[in-house]
């Protein structure tokens, strides 16, 4: 996304930021070989300070949600486990969800799993009739519903509820989508037990990578020390911790 902005400015190109995000996704899909969505590119290039982006990935309609953390901050926790998503089961998860969607489309006029609520999915899950595909699709449906609830929590300034939804997201990623692994589970689950933590979950495609936690600023240093020690004792090497702020997306620094 940074290279897109550099080229846009250098050559005075008539291309907007959403189009650049789509190009970034196409690059990842067609050249890297990862069947990813557009979330990473969109977040990087469309980010807004102290805001979350409520994005419909099918239509690319988006809305900024206020995310004033006050006495809390976001801490990024890197597992430092080597991994390559293109070589992982990431593409398998995409295929499993698509297979479940095709079976649901026998009776339902839908284009994506995100169009379903939990109740409707329960009623029609019999069409899938495959344990693995049911779990994968259930995660996709429930994660979209959690996102809708999270937007209401942010609008209402209810950070505690937002934290619980973040925890629930990790549980679903662990048990239904099965993309967390020992390293990410160690970080998230031990974060939940620390003082001043509202919520924690893995981020990205899973199988390594990073997790985030929303932590009270006054507890941040103890949090990093405690979770870091547990991680080192259990995994055998160190995790890395980064204090993060929600800032504007890709831009030229003047």
Would you mind describing this structure in some detail?
The chain is an alpha+beta fold and 254 residues long. It has one domain (47-244): Alpha-Beta Plaits (2-Layer Sandwich). It has 9 helices and 6 strands, in the order αααβββαααααββαβ. The protein has helices at residues 2-10, 17-32, 39-46, 90-104, 118-124, 131-155, 159-175, 181-192, 220-235; strands at 51-55, 62-66, 72-78, 197-203, 210-216, 240-244. The strands form 2 sheets. A 4-stranded antiparallel beta sheet has the order 4-5-3-6. Strands 1-2 form a two-stranded antiparallel ribbon. The longest helix has 25 residues, at 131-155. The model has no long low-confidence stretch (mean pLDDT 95).
Quickly describe the structure:
The chain has 254 residues and is α+β, with helices and mostly antiparallel strands.
Question: Which helices and strands occur, and which strands form pairs?
Answer:
Blueprint: H1 2-10, H2 17-32, H3 39-46, E1 51-55, E2 62-66, E3 72-78, H4 90-104, H5 118-124, H6 131-155, H7 159-175, H8 181-192, E4 197-203, E5 210-216, H9 220-235, E6 240-244
Helix pairs in contact: 2-3, 4-6, 6-7, 8-9
Main beta sheet: 4 strands, antiparallel
CATH class: Alpha Beta
Alpha-beta content class: alpha+beta
Q: From the alpha carbons, calculate the radius of gyration and give it in angstroms.
A: 19 Å
Roughly what is the average pLDDT, rounded to an integer?
95
Query: SSE order in H/E notation?
Result: HHHEEEHHHHHEEHE
């Amino acid at each position: 996304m940074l290279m897109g902005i550099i080229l846009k400015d250098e050559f005075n190109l008539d291309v907007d930021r959403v189009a650049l995000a789509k190009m970034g996704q196409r690059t990842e899909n067609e050249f890297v070989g990862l069947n990813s969505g557009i979330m990473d590119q969109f977040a990087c290039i469309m980010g807004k300070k102290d805001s979350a982006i409520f994005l419909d990935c099918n239509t690319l309609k988006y809305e900024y949600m206020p995310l004033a953390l006050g006495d809390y901050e976001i801490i990024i926790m890197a597992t430092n486990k080597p991994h390559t998503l293109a070589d992982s089961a990431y593409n398998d998860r995409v295929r499993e969800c698509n297979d479940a969607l095709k079976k649901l489309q026998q009776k339902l006029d839908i284009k994506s799993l995100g169009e379903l609520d939990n109740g409707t999915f329960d009623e029609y899950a019999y069409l899938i009739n495959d344990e693995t595909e049911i779990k994968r699709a259930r995660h996709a449906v429930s994660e979209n519903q959690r996102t809708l609830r999270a937007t209401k929590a942010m609008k209402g300034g209810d950070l505690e509820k937002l934290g619980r939804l973040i925890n629930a997201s990790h549980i679903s990623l662990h048990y239904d989508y099965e993309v967390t692994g020992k390293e990410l589970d160690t970080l998230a689950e031990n974060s939940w037990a620390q003082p001043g933590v509202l919520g924690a979950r893995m981020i990205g495609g899973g199988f390594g990578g990073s997790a985030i936690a929303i932590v009270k600023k006054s507890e941040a240093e103890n949090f990093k020390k405690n979770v870091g020690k547990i991680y080192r004792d259990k995994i055998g090497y160190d995790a890395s911790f980064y204090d993060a702020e929600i800032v504007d997306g890709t831009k030229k620094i003047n």
